[in-house]
Design brief:
By secondary structure, the protein is mainly beta. It has one domain (9-31, 51-304): Neuraminidase. The chain is built from 2 helices and 21 strands. Strands 6, 7, 8, 9 and 10 form a 5-stranded antiparallel β-sheet that branches. A 4-stranded antiparallel β-sheet has the order 1-21-20-19. A 4-stranded antiparallel β-sheet has the order 2-3-4-5, with no helix packed on it. The longest helix is centred in the first third of the chain and has 18 residues, at 9-26. The protein is globular and about 50 Å long. The N and C termini lie far apart (37 Å).
Length: 305
C-alpha cells in the first residue's frame, strides 16, 4: 500500500539456473556506454535527492521501482494512472542506441513494475497487485522480450520478487507464520513445493512489509515502513539487523516506496511525493554509497558494544 504510513517445482528450478547464469555473465556495468551518457544523460545525483525525469502519458505519473540493464543501455520503469485500485499501469523502456537515448517505448501493458532485471530476465507483477500479487517472468531472446509467464504459483502472494548472485529468491509474501500481514521472505523450493520463509523480526514489522530491495550480494536490504525507507544489514548468522531510517533528507515525502540500487551500490532510486492525491509523485535518485557504509559502521559499533 502506497503512502501506507500516512500512506515453482522442477520447471521453476530450470528458470532459476538460467537466471543465475545470466546474472553471473552479465553483472556489473560494461564499457559499452561512457559514464557521462549513463542515466539518460542526467548530471549524476549528489547527496540530496533530485527528480529523475521519466516521460509519461498525460494524466499518469512515474512510480514504483525502476530497473537498469547491466550494461546501462536500457532503463525500465512504470507509469501509473492511480492507486486504490491500481490502474493504468504499464512498463516503459528507454534505450541507448547509435550514440543517443531513444524512447520511451511501451514494453508491457497491463502489468506491474519492472522489478528485478538480471541480464536477460525481468520480474514483474500482474495488474491489481494489491489483490493478486502474482509474480511473472519474461526472458529476452535477442532484442525481443518473451511473453510474460507466471511463476511461484505455490505462493498466495508474491510482491517485488528479486534474485541475488547466489541464486536466492527474496519476496514479500504471506508466510503463514510471520510477523505481519505480509513479510519479507526467502523463497524455499523443495521438490514441487514452494514456500515463503519469513525473515522475521526485527526486519519485519507487525504490519504490511511490502516494497524492498535486496543487494546482489545479500549484504544489505532497503525496506519501507520504518517509517519511510531504511536499511538493514545481514549478519554472519543469516539474520538481519534492525533497519535504520535514512532520515528526512531522503524520506521527505508522505511515503517512500519502490527502492532500487544500482549494481555498483552508488545510487538509490525510489518513489515519493508530498500530496495525498499523488499529484506530485516522481521517481527520485540520490547518491547512497556513503550512507550505506556509514550506517553499517554505526550499527556494527553498537552490536560490538
Amino acid at each position: 500500500m502506497k503512502y501506507k504510513n500516512l500512506h515453482f517445482g522442477n520447471e521453476l528450478k530450470s528458470i532459476i539456473l538460467s537466471v543465475v547464469f545470466s546474472f553471473l555473465v552479465n553483472s556489473g556495468f560494461t564499457q559499452s556506454i561512457t559514464t557521462e551518457r549513463l542515466y539518460l544523460d542526467q548530471t549524476p545525483a549528489g547527496n540530496s535527492p533530485k527528480i529523475f525525469p521519466l516521460s509519461v502519458k498525460q494524466g499518469f505519473f512515474a512510480a514504483e521501482r525502476i530497473a537498469i540493464s547491466n550494461d546501462g543501455r536500457d532503463i525500465y520503469y512504470s507509469e501509473i494512472k492511480g492507486y486504490y485500485p491500481l490502474r493504468g499501469e504499464n512498463i516503459k523502456k528507454y534505450s541507448f542506441s547509435n550514440g543517443k537515448w531513444i524512447g520511451p517505448f511501451n514494453l508491457f501493458d497491463g502489468y506491474g513494475p519492472a522489478l528485478s532485471l538480471t541480464g536477460d530476465t525481468m520480474y514483474f507483477e500482474r495488474k491489481d497487485i494489491e489483490k493478486n500479487s502474482e509474480t511473472y517472468i519474461s526472458v529476452k531472446s535477442g532484442q525481443e522480450w518473451g511473453n510474460p509467464k507466471r511463476i511461484l504459483t505455490g505462493l498466495n502472494k508474491g510482491h517485488y520478487c528479486q534474485v541475488t548472485t547466489s541464486g536466492n529468491y527474496y519476496i514479500s509474501s504471506n508466510s503463514g507464520g510471520g510477523a505481519g500481514l505480509n513479510d519479507w521472505c526467502r523463497v524455499i523450493i523443495t521438490g514441487a513445493d514452494t514456500a515463503a520463509l519469513s525473515l522475521d523480526r526485527p526486519l519485519n514489522t507487525g504490519g504490511e512489509n511490502l516494497d524492498f530491495f535486496v543487494s546482489h550480494d545479500e549484504s544489505f536490504m532497503i525496506v519501507t515502513n520504518r517509517p519511510g525507507l531504511g536499511i538493514s544489514y545481514r549478519k554472519d548468522d543469516g539474520s538481519w539487523t534492525n533497519p535504520r531510517n535514512f532520515g528526512p533528507k531522503i524520506d521527505f515525502g508522505l511515503g517512500s516506496w519502490g527502492p532500487y540500487v544500482t549494481a555498483d551500490n552508488k545510487y538509490l532510486f525510489y518513489t515519493t511525493g508530498t500530496k495525498p492525491d499523488y499529484s506530485d509523485v516522481y521517481v527520485y535518485w540520490v547518491r547512497i554509497d556513503g550512507v550505506i557504509d556509514s550506517l553499517k559502521h554505526t550499527i556494527s559499533s553498537r552490536i560490538e558494544k
